[in-house]
Design goal:
P-loop_NTPase, Rossmann fold, 3 domains, five-stranded parallel β-sheet, Cyclin A, domain 1, Dynein_AAA5_ext, Dynein_AAA_lid domain-containing protein, 523 residues, 20 strands, alpha/beta, DHC
């Protein structure tokens, strides 16, 4: 069993080991063998689909994914090694059916009466976040490897990101300067958020740093002008400003309204060189030339990549957009600072194919902003939007049926939209599905399987169905009442952005615009 929190490297470790052993075998090293592995999420399908079941009408037996995989691997000729990987929560609802496989018998006993003997080259691997719902009998039958992501911290993630930098950014002292900026800002901001701020959902420091680096990747990609390299003469300043923007929305993006003010008051003195314990690094001249303007909060600005670059207020993007002639009052969305920044983030993440999740209480505009953006303000020649609303009764098979019904069969075992369009799914009320008795949420596990591995199992014949050109964004309320905590193994794929309640200025702007529109139409 591989056990550990997200971003510890469990999945990468397994896949890297399998690839290395296969490569060494192909190079002629006889002590190694080729490795074939098959991954399934036991909570993304029903028990019958996992192991097999009798049809209630015809009483005909249908094999499940595990039965098919075991039979296929048991019949393979040695010396190839085969790994059956169960990637998902472990609980007694399904793991107890594996007891005869885990003990010395190594036999899978099906309800049909069939017994499949594991071959000597087969291995069972369980990949999970914790063992809270596993019985001592199950744990005692397996070897344990605990993968702890916090021991090494965020620096391996940052190093990996720096190693993949484009030449335009890393050339000269660009890479070392970015490393200095990370060392200067990341630890201080992460500690402050952990000790003094309130997040709408709990995120680990590793997830926060990954989100920050992903946003920085998207911004750097936008900043680099590949067609005209001469335009990149200010790229160094653009990248440093992009780092600040990514830091604000990566580390501070999931904070509540009061914590955003605290984060602003903490960050500004550091950027201004007023904190003697955190002086700006010498690689940027001992001073920060890319800080935001003094007025407002650091959350109120975005960076424009023109000439030397400059910070602009979100309200600059709303000017001239308050004309609503011919529109019904109920269809009007008044442009505000909130609409500008959230739509900017949706655009940024769409272009970079990075999943985005908005979190906020009822009435903050989560669903409205996303639906407006996907229906009216994206290129429908590239993106085709679909909408799924979750409820307490939503099941994994139901979600899979909805997704598969929107996609075409491209070739055997591969599904996607025609003409290489990107199927854009917006999942509303993401954390509404009811938890099972041991805490798992099958619809969430199904989506995690899609985002982790890129496929599901066909519900008719239990064969692998790969899903291509898929983008998922979501919205949900803070966990409370009927809304559950979503597993961190799924949330680590998303940029988590909090939508705070409207302030008085925004409410006044919305009311005034609607009132003026109504009076112009009525009088």
């Amino acid at each position: 069993m591989l056990v550990g929190m997200p971003l510890g490297g469990k999945t990468c470790m397994l896949h890297a080991l399998a690839e290395i052993m296969t490569n060494l075998f192909e190079k002629g090293l006889t002590e190694y063998t080729k490795v074939l592995h098959r991954t399934m999420n036991p909570k993304a399908i029903t028990m019958g689909q996992l192991f097999g079941e009798f049809d209630p009408v015809s009483h005909e037996w249908t094999d499940g994914v595990t039965a098919n995989t075991f039979r296929e691997f048991a019949q393979m000729e040695p010396p190839d090694r085969t790994w059956v990987i169960f990637d998902g929560p472990i609980d007694t609802l399904w793991i107890e059916s594996m007891n005869t496989v885990l003990d010395d018998n190594k036999k899978l006993c099906l309800m049909s009466g069939e017994i499949i003997q594991m071959s000597k080259t087969m291995s069972l691997i369980f990949e999970t976040m914790d063992l809270l719902q596993a019985s001592p009998a199950t744990v005692s039958r397996c070897g344990m490897i605990y993968v702890e992501p916090m021991a090494m911290g965020w620096r391996p993630l940052a190093t990996s990101w720096l190693d993949a930098l484009p030449e335009e950014v890393s050339s000269g002292d660009g890479r070392d300067t970015l490393q200095d900026l990370f060392d200067w800002l990341f630890d201080a901001c992460l500690d402050f958020v952990r000790l003094h701020c309130q997040q709408l959902i709990s995120l680990s420091p590793m997830c926060i740093v990954k989100s920050t680096l992903d946003l920085l990747t998207a911004l750097v990609t936008d900043a680099i002008n590949e067609e005209n390299p001469a335009e990149n003469r200010h790229l160094r300043m653009w990248v440093h400003a992009s780092l600040l923007f990514s830091l604000v929305w990566g580390i501070g993006g999931c904070l509540d309204d009061a914590s955003r003010v605290k984060f602003d008051e903490f960050l500004r003195p550091i950027l201004g060189g007023k904190e003697p314990d955190l002086p700006p690094p010498q690689s940027i001249g001992g001073r920060c030339d890319f800080q935001t303007p003094e007025s407002g909060l650091v959350f109120d600005y975005f960076y424009e990549f023109k000439s030397r670059g400059k910070w602009r207020h979100w309200n600059d993007l709303t000017r001239g957009q308050d004309k609503f002639e011919g529109m019904e009052i109920r269809d009007i969305i008044v442009p505000t600072m909130d609409t500008a920044r959230y739509k900017f983030l949706i655009d940024l993440c769409l272009r970079a194919n990075q999943a985005l999740c908005f979190i906020g209480v009822t009435g903050t505009g989560k669903s409205t902003y996303v639906r407006e953006k996907l229906m009216r303000a994206i290129d429908h020649d590239v993106y085709k939007p679909f909408f799924i609303n979750f409820s307490a009764q939503t099941g994994a098979n139901q979600v899979q049926d909805i997704i598969m019904s929107r996609l075409d069969r491209r070739r055997k075992g591969v599904y996607g939209l025609p003409m290489d369009k990107i199927a854009t799914f917006f999942i509303d009320d993401l954390n509404m599905p009811a938890q099972e008795v041991y805490g798992a949420q099958p619809p969430i596990e199904l989506l995690r399987m899609v985002m982790d591995h890129g496929y599901v199992y066909d519900l008719k014949d239990m064969t692998k169905a790969s899903l291509i050109n898929l983008y998922i964004c979501a919205a949900m309320g803070p966990p409370a009442g009927a809304r559950s905590d979503v597993t961190p193994r799924f949330m680590r794929h998303f940029h988590a952005i909090s939508m705070v309640p409207f302030n008085d200025v925004t409410l006044t702007r919305i009311f005034s615009a609607l009132m003026h529109t109504y009076l112009r139409v009525s009088l």
